[in-house]
Design brief:
Blueprint: H1 6-17, H2 23-35, H3 40-64, E1 68-69, E2 72-73, H4 75-101, H5 105-129, H6 136-160, H7 166-190, H8 203-206, H9 212-219, H10 223-235, H11 240-252, H12 255-274, H13 281-296
Antiparallel strand pairs: 1-2
Helix pairs in contact: 2-3, 2-6, 2-13, 3-4, 3-6, 5-6, 6-7, 7-12, 7-13, 9-11, 9-12, 12-13
């Protein structure tokens, strides 16, 4: 991440000091251990995944107009949008160059597919959000591309870094995709949770995001109620009282248990795929990481 440009070096140092849990690189290493042996290519794969993830967070804060990240100021809050976009581009290019310099072309293909999917998912969400009429099928496609694709790529990259067969790489990719789906649904559920969870309750509603608990609740009510709720989301999303009423509506309509059941379905599909690999310490560690991501991590 180092650069000879002083401003860029200052910002990347700022990012390194505030790094997150680095769960996605953990998936890279564990996937490699499940499928074979960790080597230099695995470290490059993990670095590429973390660089891509960091780049997307910097870009996401610009797209969402967010001025906080991990409890501190975001890059765009401190250095404005133009610089934040360029920093994200720099991080992304550094990951790609790492693959090219080491002739890791399969890893480059896996990571590039994640970039493509994440961009498409973000644009699909922006397109549909204008009308607030997202069906469950569309929502699932959005999160598959926006969130699940990166975790899927992390698992596929880890497997590929060991020289595993394409069948194993694809199986590990599907495992990661299911984990990513479960993780995003869990994150959506936290938006309707009571108590201190570290994430402001109702933030998705304020941002007019149609998540699974809300989408389901809207299918269970009459036309008049649906029209009223959508009108409140469209015109009163900054009104704290209106947001509380929408949250209560979702809770009363069974949106939370429905979404939780869907989350557990994806989680179980991931466990079923993982069970096809040999029972090793690495696989058991992967199972623990899955539980952490889908049950406790926000």
């Amino acid at each position: 991440m180092e650069s000879k440009v002083p401003l860029l070096d200052k910002i990347t140092f700022f990012l390194v000091k505030r790094k997150g849990k680095q769960v996605r690189p953990m998936f890279v290493f564990l996937a490699a251990r499940v499928c074979g042996q960790i080597g230099d290519a695995t470290f490059r794969a993990a670095s590429m995944i973390e660089l891509l993830h960091t780049a997307t967070l910097v870009h996401d804060d610009v797209v969402d107009g967010s001025f906080q990240r991990r409890g501190f100021f975001s890059v765009n809050a401190l250095w404005k949008n133009k610089i934040a976009v360029l920093v994200g581009d720099y991080l992304l290019s550094q990951g790609m160059l790492m693959a090219v310099r080491n002739k890791e072309y399969r890893l480059l293909e896996i990571i590039s597919q994640a970039v493509k999917s994440m961009s498409e998912g973000e644009l699909l969400q922006l397109e549909k959000a204008r009308r607030l009429d997202i069906a469950e099928t569309v929502y699932l496609e959005v999160i598959r591309q926006k969130t699940a694709s990166l975790i899927a790529s992390a698992c596929a990259a880890g497997a590929s870094s060991t020289g595993a067969s394409e069948e194993l790489v694809e199986r590990m990719r599907l495992f990661g995709e299911n984990i990513g789906m479960a993780f995003q649904i869990k994150d959506d559920l936290l938006d309707f949770s009571a108590g201190d969870i570290g994430k402001p309750v109702g933030i998705d509603i304020k941002e007019k995001k149609m998540t699974l608990p809300l989408i389901y609740a809207l299918t269970q009510c009459d036309a008049a109620t649906r029209k009223r709720i959508l009108n409140d989301i469209r015109n009163r999303s900054e009104d704290a009282a209106a947001v509380r009423q929408i949250i209560q509506f979702v809770r009363n309509s069974g949106g939370l248990p429905y979404a939780e059941a869907r989350m557990h379905t994806y989680q179980q599909q991931a466990f079923d795929l993982l069970a096809t690999f040999p029972d090793t310490e690495a696989r058991r560690s992967m199972e623990e990481l899955v539980n952490f991501v889908t049950e406790r991590m926000r």
